[in-house]
Structure formats: C-alpha cells, structure tokens
Amino acid sequence: MTTEEFKKHAHEFVDWMAEYFESVEEYPVKAQVKPGEIYRKLQAEAPGEPESMEQIFDDFKQYILPGMTHWQSPNFFAYFPANNSYPSVLAEMLTATLGAQCMIWETSPAAAELEERVMNWLKQMLGLPGSFEGVIQDTASTASLTALITARERASGMQINKRGFSANEKYRIYCSMETHSSIEKAVKIAGLGSNSLVKIAVDKDFRMNPGLLEKAIIEDIDNGYNPLSVIATLGTTGTTAIDPLEKIADISSRYKLWLHVDAALAGSALLLPEFRWMIKGIEGVDSFVFNPHKWLFTNFDCSAYFVKDPGLLIKSLEILPEYLKTKSRGKVNDYRDWGIPLGRRFRALKLWFVIRNFGVSGLQEKLRSHLRLTAKLQKMINESGDFEIMAPVPLNTICFRYHPAGEDNPELLDSLNEKLLQDINDSGKAYFTHTRLNGSFVIRFVIGQTNVSEKHVINAWNLIQGTIKRFN
Q: How far apart (Å, rounded) are the C-alpha atoms in residues 247 and 255?
C-alpha cells in the first residue's frame, strides 16, 4: 500500500467511524448470530495473493459487523460500561500510528513522563493521598495480581521470588462473597492457591462484614495460618456495593495485612466530591485500582493503579537484563518494572486527551447525568407495582426483577425473569445481563454508556414493560 492509498482509505475509514457513532443505536445491541455462524463465512485459508483494501473493508462490514455486540450503543445496559469517546478514539489513532513500545523511559521518554503527569492528575481528581504513586496497567485483573505479588514478597522478605514456595507459608487472603472473580484468579496465578482465599459473608446490603473478617483472621492465626492480604471492593460487580473501607482498613492495619482496593467501576465516581465518603480510611490502603476504560470514557484498555510504596512494587517485579540497562535508570520511571509485562502500550495518551477535552467539570457532569438517570429509573421501578428492586443503588446499577402480585414461587419468578431477559436481548433493542442475589435471579440495569440519555432509559423501561405484557 502506498502513502496515497493509505490516506485514501484512512479518510474512508474515518468517515465510516463518524457515521457509526451517529447510527450505532440503530444496530441490534447484542449480536444476533449463532455459535460458529461467523467462522463458517470466513475464508478457510489465508489468501496467497494480496487483496484490495476495498474487498477487505467490504468483508468487515458484511461478516464482522453483524457478529459484534455494540458496547458503545446508548441502549447497552449490560455488564458494565466499557466506554470510548471522540477524544479517546482520536488518541488511539495516533497511538497506533506511532506504534511505540513504551517499556522504559529510553524507548519513549514522552510516554513515560506523560503517564507520570496524568497519574498525578488522576490522584488529585479522585482525592487520593498525595503519597500514592500511580501507573497505568492494562486491566484491574492485572493490577490486583500485581498487588498480591507485592504483598507476597513483602511478607516473605522477597524470598518466594528467589526460592519459590515451601510448605510453610500458609498464607491467607480475604475478600467478600461479592468480590470480582479476578481476585480468585490472581490468587491462583500468584501461586498462593485457591484454598488460601477466604470469602467473607456480606451484610444485607451485600458489603463485606468487618466483624466476620476480623473473626476469620483471628481463627486463622489460632490455627497456624499467616494472614497476608485483604481485598476490599468499592462497587462490586453484581450490585456496586461499597465495602466499609474505614473499618476494613483499621482491621488490616492492626493485623499488618496488605490492603488492596478494587474500585474498577466505582473509582470514577470519586471525581464527584459527594462520593468521597467511599474512600474514608484510604490512608490505610496499600494499593488501589480503578478503570478509566469503564466509566471515564476512555477506550479499553486503561487501568489506573496506585501504590503507597512503589519501591516495594518495583523490587518485587524488576529484572534487569543487559539489554535494558541504561544511564537514565534510577533517574526516571521505567514502568516495565511496575507491572507484569515488559511490553507496554502508550495508554497515557488517550487518557490525557479525554481529561483535557472534557475537562474535570465535563467529566463530572457526565457522571452526574448518569446518576440522575439512575435515580429516575429507580423511582419508576418502585412505583410500577409489579417490579421490585433487589439491592441498594449506591451508584449507577439497579438490580431488579419482575414480581407479579400474588406470585411467590421462587422457581417461577426465576423462570419469568430469565425469559424476560432473554426476550429483550433477542430483540436487539437493548441488552441486559443478570446476577443472583440471595439465590434469586435478578436483572441488572447499568446506566453508564457515554452517550446514554433519558430517552434511551425510558425506551428501555417501556420495552421491559411491553415484553411483560406479552407474557400475560
């Protein structure tokens, strides 16, 4: 491809991208294909000869697009937001063009120094302690794994990195029953073993119970175990429950445990001063992660990880082969020592673009608009009669179910709500997912897509009610 051909196709692609953003809500939100359908339509063998970009792009539109779920649709209310925005997409285009490998300062000084500056911006924007230092990871899953490895090495005096595990560590890690599954995965990958993970029961609001946490720690000490770490969650995956951080931090401090906070979704809400109550006790936290790629309008992947002791983090993860030795080492941040992979993308650029183009006030207004829509929907559900909210709504997620008057058979209620969810998702008009709370099947309505408006929320609620009418 020549430069002129590249320019021609690039302009065509940008035109298509702009049209996609304008029309994305017209697509079925959830891909309306069956397993294997896309695979069977694709060429069985790689082409031996070059193919034109026109043909490749036509095949993208014909074969790939119908198999995509449209996370950027304002009718997407499933899982969690995974948002982009115009400034973020523009920055990603520049990042792809530069094609930089940003593993150390020497390989792209601007990338390292921009990351340092942007992470300091975020720290101030969220109200985190000034003593924290930050780094951009790919996901909260990786950040949590990094936290557990650092906790492990602190407890072992860096010996597990050297000699591996013996049979005598008997470490214990504590989280709530509602903690994200990535914590259990991290425990396995870090070599701690899934049996070392103790899941603490939650209270009626699905928050970790601090009293039961301390009881479990004491019992483990009495039985010869070594408590290592506590994972607190701000905004659980199921209901966005907020664990009582101050009490958990006090317990973690008294027993000298590494306290890691997973605020993957909810961390963005800390831009709003009225939500800083969530981090009361943050001074007792060792590490903290949230995902701008969830609710801060920044393309996946971009996870902001903060630590109280970056020296300990670096000591736990650094390896220095000859080819990575530089004269700048020790004078700058070589971020490949701050995480699992050596290779690093230039993620700071899109975050810089987003913060500057929205401004803090613009980001705050977006978040507040989502929260206002959530409160409006919560009121409509409460006034509906045949629907009930199944969990507190501290942020932008409503867990609810259809519960017709006089029907209390749990199996039938589960079946009705499962059918309701499936019918709506099959329609392509909106997309929801579910969870189980106290054994009951409930539907999750998450309001956080970048461009969602009152119109989209009301249309989705009307769709739910209209679907129920067809059941009767």
A: 13
Angle at 139 between CA 134 and CA 143, to 5 degrees: 50
Same domain, 160 and 261: yes
8/156 same-domain check: no
pLDDT category of residue 53 using cuts at 50, 70 and 90:
very high
Residue 471 binned pLDDT confidence (cut-offs 50, 70, 90): confident
Q: Are 112 and 334 in contact (CB under 8 A)?
A: yes
Alpha-carbon distance of 260 to 103, in angstroms, equals 25
Domain stops at, among 307, 322, 345: 345
What are the DSSP E strand ranges found in 267-338? 287-290, 303-307
Q: What angle do CA 141, 265, 152 make, to 5 degrees?
A: 30
**Domains identified in the chain, total number:** 2
Give the separation between CA 450 and CA 296, rounded to whole angstroms.
Answer: 8
Based on the domain organization, do 403 and 313 belong to the same domain?
A: no
Residues 6 or more apart whose Cβ sits within 8 Å of residue 279: 126, 127, 128, 234, 245, 261, 270
The residues facing 434 across adjacent strands are: 443
Same domain, 336 and 212: yes
Note whether 294 and 181 are same-domain residues: yes
Does one domain contain both 319 and 173? yes
Beta bridge partners of residue 114, listed in sequence order: none
What CA–CA distance (Å, rounded) separates 306 from 259? Answer: 12
Based on the fold, state whether residues 19 and 140 are members of the same structural domain: no
pLDDT digits (tens, 9 = 90+) for 412-428: 999 999 999 999 999 99
**8-state DSSP, 202:** B
Asked if 9 and 17 count as a contact pair (C-beta separation under 8 A), the reply is no
Are residues 441 and 325 both part of a single domain?
A: no
CATH number, domain with residue 333: 3.40.640.10
- As a 3-state breakdown, the chain gives helix, strand, coil percent values, each rounded to 5, of 50, 15, 35
Long-range pairs of 383-391 with CB within 8 A, sequence gap ≥ 24: 384/465, 386/468, 390/437, 390/440, 390/442, 391/205, 391/206, 391/238, 391/239, 391/241, 391/437, 391/442
Strands, DSSP E only, in 72-201? 133-137, 171-176, 197-200
Range of the domain at 271: 100-345
Its pTM surpasses 0.90: yes
CATH of the domain at 467: 3.90.1150.170
Is beta strand 226-233 parallel, antiparallel or unpaired with respect to 258-262?
Answer: parallel
* 181-227 confidence digits (pLDDT tens): 999 999 999 999 999 999 999 999 999 999 999 999 999 999 999 99
